[in-house]
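Backbone-to-sequence.
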């Protein structure tokens, strides 16, 4: 095989891999189209407890840190401004409308080490487990992972924990294999 033939084979393989990736993302987007992110503002009476900036890593199925969900507005990694209020948590992702997770929708908060393709020091990610509404009227628990930059992950998790009712489960531990709270 000459040089031109090898180049054509490499180009064909690259195009096939790109097409396969696009096909897989499209299937994932259709699969997750029924899950709706809670876009909206915090209630006007909400008092800000803390605010930090950092990175939004991913939203995954609850307990499956390696299974990214393609929810509109939450499908890609982004910079984020996190505002914790007494009524819930607001996430301002670059290029997306504000998302507000009300306190009543938060199931738990904890620390994680791994999410999708991000591995950090032990407890370097905040795992926010919350109930996302589906278009069919049901809800599904999902985990959103945040990497704060202005404060420690433990401080952000503690601030979110402080706004939750005492009956809400919180877990500050993580497992080495998936990073999800045990």
């Amino acid at each position: 095989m000459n040089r031109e033939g090898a180049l054509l084979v490499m180009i064909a393989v690259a195009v096939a891999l790109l097409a396969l990736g696009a096909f897989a993302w499209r299937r994932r987007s259709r699969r997750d189209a029924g899950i709706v992110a809670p876009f909206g503002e915090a209630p006007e009476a909400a008092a800000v407890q803390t605010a930090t900036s950092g990175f939004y890593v991913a939203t995954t199925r609850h307990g499956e840190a390696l299974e990214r969900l393609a929810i509109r507005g939450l499908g890609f990694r982004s910079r984020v401004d996190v505002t914790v209020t007494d009524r819930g948590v607001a996430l301002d992702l670059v290029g997306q409308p504000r998302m507000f997770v009300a306190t009543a929708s938060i199931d738990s908060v904890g620390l994680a080490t791994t999410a999708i393709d991000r591995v950090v020091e032990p407890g370097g990610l905040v795992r926010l487990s919350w109930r996302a509404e589906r278009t069919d009227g049901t809800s599904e628990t999902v985990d959103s992972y945040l990497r704060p930059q202005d404060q420690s992950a433990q401080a952000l998790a503690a601030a979110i924990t402080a706004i939750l009712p005492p009956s809400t489960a919180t877990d500050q531990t993580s497992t080495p294999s998936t990073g999800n709270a045990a």
